[in-house]
Write a structure and sequence with these properties.
The protein is 51% helix and 8% strand. The chain is of the alpha/beta class. The strands form 3 sheets. It has a 5-stranded parallel beta sheet, sandwiched between helices. A 3-stranded mixed beta sheet has the order 1-4-5, covered by helices on one side. The longest helix is centred in the first third of the chain and has 40 residues. The radius of gyration is 27 Å and the shape is globular.
Length: 478
């Protein structure tokens, strides 16, 4: 009877272990199916998303099937081992999520420590607080994307306004730090970086784009606009960090239209602009710029906008640092906090996957911008800026590069591609701060500007040659 009872207990234990294997396999299959659906719906998204949502669950299924085929004793030991590992990982994820932790180092801060280079580890808030304690009128840079991503609006003259300028007009702004010290610069009367042109001296070039165009993390004199201004003195920088192509279309209509430049240089950054245009499309306040005559009259309301910005930033600085956000189920299942702490598979490209219509939406925005510029006789040139992944992690580089370039050229856009210039450099990673992911360093911005300058000068010379009488040479007319 004792032997029969032991046999029944063993049978139940084995059945329980088999159930655990089946439940684990079923969960892994469901996660793999979810991942496959996500990747199918967003075919332009690659890299770590595939590992997390498809490859890893399928590997778990394969392991569980292998365990099921083991002899009974080995199967029980394997299940105990897997359950123990799962429990330990779950507890580690819970601890990392809930327990207080020291301020994490940024990637650049960690690299600076490894290289033995000085690095200002303060936050922007701390830099502003320290400067104000010394009596300096310093403000944090707050991007237009901050308002759009959080669905925030400013109340100005009874209207709900989305600010599009790159900061507080006429104030000293603290921007970013990737090279060891913060970029601090004065904003102009419109809130952008660098000098403005006037009605008496209209702009030759206007630059549109995101943080790369604004000149993130480098000093005045080292931005794209600063370098181009040496050839075209009336170059105006309307680049704004945190904006995507649709917000930049708004900047074109709200601000550039007042300057009526002969040429608009519209910088496309492959790292996030195609993803940005997707979520911008879902925001009616910027999607409106695709329609004729849409505007918020931001320049006419700039006094009210500035006052509302000051009020918003002061209120934000007075609040304590935001509390931890509630995690989604998939972050728990995929050990998001633990992976983030250890630096495992924390790929940036998985945050904003791309759908099938992304390239078409991008081209529609640029088409609309070209129509706007043509209304005053201006031209639009698209400048394609490569990301760090193109050279530092080619397997994670922007996959739809060819699709974007092909679509733009098919629509007849003049395109300046900076990638060949960077690729031809003997050490492309040296064009990025500390050779790691981020914006360009001073040398990178200089080389990108040289590529743009050379392309514009070649185009101008070719146009002059076509317009010149027979036998006349634009390069040497004498």
């Amino acid at each position: 009877m004792i032997e029969s009872s032991s046999r029944r207990v063993s049978t139940r234990i084995l059945a329980a272990f088999n159930v655990l294997l089946l439940v684990g396999a079923a969960c892994a299959v469901l996660l793999a199916a979810y991942g496959a659906a996500q990747l199918r719906a967003r075919p332009l998204d690659y890299g770590v998303a595939f590992v997390l949502y498809a490859a890893a669950p399928l590997l778990v299924v394969a392991v569980l099937i292998g365990v099921r085929l083991l002899p009974v004793a080995a199967r029980i030991n394997a299940v105990l081992l897997l359950v123990s590992v799962g429990v330990m990982l779950g507890l580690a994820e819970l601890a990392v999520t809930l327990l207080p932790s020291p301020r994490p180092e940024t990637t650049h801060q960690r690299m600076a420590r490894q290289l033995g280079q000085p690095y200002d580890g303060r936050t922007v808030r701390e830099v502003v607080a320290d400067a104000r304690a010394r009596g300096e009128d310093v403000w944090p840079f707050v991007s237009p994307g901050h308002f759009l991503a959080r669905d925030l609006r400013l109340d100005v003259d009874g209207a709900r306004i989305l600010p599009l300028s790159a900061g507080l007009p006429g104030r000293t702004l603290v921007d970013c730090n990737e090279g060891g010290r913060y970029t601090i610069y004065p904003a102009n009367a419109w809130g952008f970086r660098g000098p403005l042109s006037t009605a008496e001296t209209p702009a030759q070039l206007v630059l549109l784009g995101d943080s790369f165009t604004q000149g993130a993390c480098v000093d005045d004199g080292e931005t794209l606009a600063d370098h181009l201004r040496m050839t075209w003195p009336r170059t105006v920088n309307l680049g704004a960090s945190g904006t995507g192509p649709l917000m930049q279309l708004g900047i074109l209509q709200e601000f550039a239209a007042r300057l009526r430049p002969a040429r608009v240089l519209w910088f496309f950054y492959e790292g996030n602009d195609l993803a940005n245009v997707q979520w911008e499309y879902d925001a009616p306040i910027v999607n409106r710029y695709l329609r004729d005559g849409a505007h918020q009259a931001l320049l006419d309301r700039r006094t009210g906008v500035e006052a509302a910005l000051v009020q918003h930033i002061d209120a934000a600085l007075a609040r304590p640092v935001a509390a931890r956000k509630r995690k989604a189920w998939r972050d728990w299942l995929l050990l998001g906090s633990l992976r983030g702490r250890l630096g495992w598979f924390s790929d940036r490209s998985t945050k904003r996957p791309l759908d099938r219509t992304a390239v078409a939406k991008l081209v529609e925005v640029f088409d609309r911008g070209r129509t706007v510029a043509a209304s005053w006789g201006g031209q639009v040139t698209i400048v394609y800026l490569p990301s760090w992944e193109r050279y530092g992690a080619p397997n994670q580089a922007f996959a739809p590069r060819r699709a974007v370039l092909r679509a733009l050229r098919a629509r007849g856009f003049d395109v300046v591609d900076v990638h060949p210039v960077f690729r031809a450099h003997h050490d492309p990673l040296s064009l990025f701060p500390m050779r790691i992911y981020g914006h360009y360093n001073a040398d990178g911005y200089a080389r990108a500007a040289d590529a743009v300058r050379s392309a514009l000068q070649r185009a101008t010379t070719a146009a002059d040659d076509r317009a010149a009488p027979a036998g006349w040479n634009a390069k040497n007319p004498g």
